[in-house]
Amino acid sequence: MSEAKKLHLIKCGICVGIIIAAFGILSGFICLARKNWINGLKVAAERTLPEKSGYKVMDFVPIESNLSTSAGCFALGGEASTDGDLIFVVRATTYYGPFPAVYVYHASNGAAEFIGFYMLNSTISKQIVLDGNDSCIKFWKSRCEILAKEYTASKKELKK
Question: What angle do CA 28, 31, 36 make, to 5 degrees?
Answer without folding.
Answer: 130
